Amino acid sequence: MLTELRRQRILSLLKEYEMVTLTELTDSLNVSESTIRRDLQFMEDHGLLLRVHGGAKKVNTLNVEANMNEKSQVNVEGKIAIAKYAASLVQPNEIIYLDAGTTTFQMIPFLPTDVQLKVVTNSVKHAAQLSDYQIETIILGGNVKLSTQASTGVTTSEQLQHYRFDQAFIGINGIDLHAGFTTPDIEEAHLKRIGLKNSARPFILADATKFQTINFVQVAPVHAAEIITDHCPSDIRKRLSLHTTIKEVTL
């Protein structure tokens, strides 16, 4: 069997079964284990699958984004730990950007309220909460995406282009060494990209569920921001650490 056809067959098996073992692949494709290992290494290097002990599993690729209520119920403790640490990095007199997202929203109660601070956000929900805490807030205008309660579109991005930040805290849907930081929505990806670029110190806030997940649109390569997470598997951390800084935190 030709190499390309064999690798297509591996992808088809992963699509059907989510995970396959080396034995299953050697039996199905009638090739040696060493050949399968080379295939899996090549395919992992190109972001097509994730190697695991004794086989491989499908890379989780998402094109549809859950709404804010759904996402807010996932790994709450981890998100709070990330948010608390991220908020501790904010210094007096800084101007920061808070991207729309459930983890960045959790930062707000931990932000300092006894110092001068200015927060820019594209989230309607974030802006209301920041106002409740008496924190100076600028909300970006534009079309509000109902599922995430975030301003998006040309008006939003043009406004954001003019701002510069001491720090930016960006939520993300997926992190993969080869695919980078990814998200399902083109317009939101553009805003996240601007937020990272226009910040002196950009951060990606991502709980453990975001690693080895690939979404439709790349926001930036992994070297574009530091990562704050509640957990990153050791093998993934080892590879990502060659390109960026990863901070693991717990409550």
TrEMBL record:
SUPFAM superfamilies from the UniProt entry: NagB/RpiA/CoA transferase-like, Winged helix' DNA-binding domain
Top-rank lineage group of the source organism: Bacteria
Domain HTH deoR-type per the UniProt entry, residue ranges: 3-58
Gene Ontology MF terms in the entry: DNA binding; DNA-binding transcription factor activity
Keywords annotated in UniProt: DNA-binding, Transcription, Transcription regulation
PROSITE patterns with a match to the protein in the record: HTH_DEOR_1, HTH_DEOR_2
Transmembrane segments: none
Identification of the protein by name: HTH deoR-type domain-containing protein
